[in-house]
Amino acid sequence: MAKAARGPSIRDVARRAGVSPQTVSRVLNDFAGIRVATRERVLEAMAELNYRRNLTARTLVTGRSNTIGMIGPDIPAIGPLSSLHAVERAAREAGFHTLLTSTSPSPDDVAGALEFLLGRGIDALVLVAEHRSVQKAVDAAIGELPVVHLLTGGRPQRTSISIDQAGGVRAALEHLLALGHRCIQHISGPLDYSEAQLRRDAFRDMIFSAGLEEFPNIEGDWTTDSGYAAGQQLDPRATAVFSANDQMSFGLIHALADQGRSVPGDVSVVSFDDTPESRHSLPPLTTVHQDFEAVGKLAVKVLVARIAGEHAPPNDLIVPWLVERSSTAGPRASA
Amino acid sequence: MAKAARGPSIRDVARRAGVSPQTVSRVLNDFAGIRVATRERVLEAMAELNYRRNLTARTLVTGRSNTIGMIGPDIPAIGPLSSLHAVERAAREAGFHTLLTSTSPSPDDVAGALEFLLGRGIDALVLVAEHRSVQKAVDAAIGELPVVHLLTGGRPQRTSISIDQAGGVRAALEHLLALGHRCIQHISGPLDYSEAQLRRDAFRDMIFSAGLEEFPNIEGDWTTDSGYAAGQQLDPRATAVFSANDQMSFGLIHALADQGRSVPGDVSVVSFDDTPESRHSLPPLTTVHQDFEAVGKLAVKVLVARIAGEHAPPNDLIVPWLVERSSTAGPRASA
DNA sequence: CTCCTGAATGCTAACGTAAACATTCGTGCC
DNA sequence: GGCACGAATGTTTACGTTAGCATTCAGGAG
Questions:
Q1: How far lies B99's CA from each of A88, B245, B307, in Å?
Q2: A36: which nucleotide lies closest, measuring CA to C1'?
Q3: Looking at CB atoms within 10 Å, which of A29, A174, A231, A280 has the fewest?
């Protein structure tokens, strides 16, 4: 067994400094009304003993952990990972820390992750790119805990910080329409993810209201490989593709290149995410910018307010915008 | 103030089941020697009250948290993020959970992160892609805690799971040499990261022992943008580039394309990481495969063993290999 | 019937901290 | 000089759990 190796406690410090444990606690928590000499004696004792405050005990007694739990998806896609990372940074700046669990969509896994976080006394919960099974489990288990759903794009019943998925899709499609495209196919993410479904639905709405022909949806799984596969089943009449994330776009463009078709010469591609890679791919992608950083910051801001007991602000919608680069152009005359 | 909203405790369950708290605890921890009827009564009571075990209290009394702390870099690069993610998954499978903190290289930040993790009673620590300032802080603060340094590629003094950076570089350069390249320039990562330095050093050794001319090192910061910038300062005589990660390679290739130079026609590019994007970029990258998943798994395995008090196995070196794709070819006759 | 034994369960203390209340002490005022 | 008062510090208790020891109980041996 690993030895317990407990460090010095507040009591040891108190003894060494010749004060009561409570006084040490007060110094730790920056209470007013401690004589300067006393405080210094305590600080000195802490330094000498190499004292480290025990967050576990503190959490136990206060019921507050200053920790935000995060549940993310199991997949190593840059999008969700960026969001998680952004939350982590924003939380840190706000004086909070994060407890990260990723989980496969299996209900058992989700329940386990939730169990761990809740048992750990988190003060709030952030859900990133949730699989739908996660939503259900969370709704069942959460009591008063502040929760933010990130990026889902529209869950009116609870607080959520979302990118306005429909708005982003609209910007992307308007761009393609303005270029003159009439045959546009969609490569969606896995439809059991909220984002994927929202984007697909918004796409359909746009196609419908523009009176265009609807091509069958090709469902990918967010990965570059699935984008490549999608490129192989693309309808030959399509002059433009709206792809649900950048990674799939890369795969798609690769597949087209292998078929001897160029982007945007033969096919235009509009994408979603604006990951760092999309700025420098060949061609650089025209893509909807998702400001992960802003989302993370806003999420933490909302949560901190709710933790402090302030009334939760209404759902916040971050509006993404289209970054026009070189993967789109007008359709060929021949099309 | 947020209401405490404490859930039911072991005591509430005990009262309801008509047993002592200790018996409930025994049921929770799967002790032998509980009458079946009693156990069932307890389980029933837990279900009725929707009881959730408090990990905080448990940690406080046992001194073990079943949690592995992770410190990662502040940057949202896919490489380190993948590693963190892999550790998280491996830990979960081993019954552990993870506490993630990322930190800027500033000593204060690092100290704060460490403080948080240690105060939280983590059982072990994983360092991913450490900035050198992290190493120093960790060495100072860690006592008996099992630590694994991930991906640094050679820290003999402590247990570390590393990718054999030098081996990877060797594979990459041997490939270029075999193709006939003699003018090879390096784009390194920021040299205050261990990996960046190890790769740069291995590169130099290879160049030296092959008796080739040494071009000045161009130092990037792992991002695609810095790769693009590097592409603009490339020595015109270089027929091949060894770039320290995939993201910078993408930027580099973009810059070359903007100059009207093609890859691999005019310049060959060998890279490091084998991220999912590299399979489908144009051209697909020849790159050194880093098995983040394997590294994560191995790290957790080592840590679990050390937590259990077994003697730490010696440093483990994972050997990466070169994946040959289409970004390399022989030098032009004109070169 | 009593005693012993082992199985099942209960009781008490402890983990390290902070909240709430209690006490001490110095100081200024009458 | 005595008193009141606020500032500084101390004492007690609780948070939810588990370790360690104590107790109860049933059943078999003598």
A1: 11, 27, 16
A2: D8
A3: A29
* Closest A-chain CA to B146: A2
Nearest-CB residue to B55 (from A120, A144, A284): A120
Over its length of 335 residues, how does chain A's per-residue pLDDT go in tens digits?
A: 333 457 899 999 999 999 999 999 999 998 888 889 999 999 999 999 989 899 999 999 988 888 899 988 877 777 777 888 888 888 888 888 888 888 887 878 888 888 878 888 889 998 886 677 777 777 777 777 888 887 665 555 556 677 788 999 999 999 999 999 999 999 999 998 888 999 999 999 999 999 999 999 999 999 999 999 999 999 999 999 999 999 999 999 999 999 999 999 999 999 999 999 999 999 999 999 988 888 888 888 888 888 877 776 656 778 899 999 999 999 975 54
CATH level 3 topology of B10-53: 434 Repressor (Amino-terminal Domain) (1.10.260)
Task: Domain B165-289: give its CATH code.
Answer: 3.40.50.2300
Distance CA B174, CA B180 (A): 10
Q: B321, B331, B275: which is closest to A281 by C-alpha?
A: B275
**Class for domain B66-164+292-320, per CATH?**
alpha beta
**CB within 8 Å of chain B, chain A residues 155-214:** none
Protein residue ranges contacting nucleic strand D, Cβ under 7 Å: A 18-23, 26, 32-35, 37-38, 57, 60-61, 63; B 6-7, 9-11, 21-22, 25, 28-29, 53-54, 57-58, 60-62
Q: Where are the domains of chain B?
A: 10-53, 66-164+292-320, 165-289
Between 3.30.565.10, 3.30.930.10, 3.40.50.2300, 3.30.360.10, what CATH number should domain A65-164+292-318 receive? 3.40.50.2300
Contact status of A6 with chain B (Cβ, < 8 Å): yes
Q: Are A146 and A303 in contact (CB under 8 A)?
A: yes
- Choose, out of B53, B60, B61, B85, the residue to mutate when testing the contact with A (most A CBs < 10 Å): B85
**Fold equal for A65-164+292-318 and A165-291:** yes
User: How far, in Å, are A275, A281, B216 from residue B225 at the CA level?
Assistant: 12, 11, 19
Residue A91: closest CA among chain B residues belongs to which residue? B101
Q: How many helices (H) and strands (E) does chain B have?
A: 12, 12
Q: Does B93 reach chain A within 8 Å, measured CB to CB?
A: no
Cα–Cα distances (Å) from A66 to A50, A71, A148, A254, A280, in that order, read 23, 17, 16, 46, 39
The whole-angstrom separation of Cα A243 and Cα A200 is 10
Which residues from chain B sit within 8 angstroms of residue A82, using beta carbons? Answer: 76, 81
Measured between beta carbons, which residues in chain A are less than 8 angstroms from residue B65? 56
Q: What is the CATH number of domain A165-291?
A: 3.40.50.2300
Q: What distance in Å separates residue B335's CA from the closest CA in chain A?
A: 25
